[in-house]
Amino acid sequence: MERSARPTEVVPVTSPFANSNRPGVPPRLPTPPTGWPIGSYATYEEAQRAVDFLALEDFPVQDITVVGVDLMLVERVTGKLTWSRVLMTGAASGAWFGLFVGLLLTLFSPEPGVTVGPVLTGLITGVFFGLVFAAVGYGSARGKRDFQSASQLVAGRYDVLCHPKSAEKGRDLLAKLAMRPPNPGN
Question: How far apart are CA 173 and CA 31, in angstroms?
Answer without folding.
Answer: 27
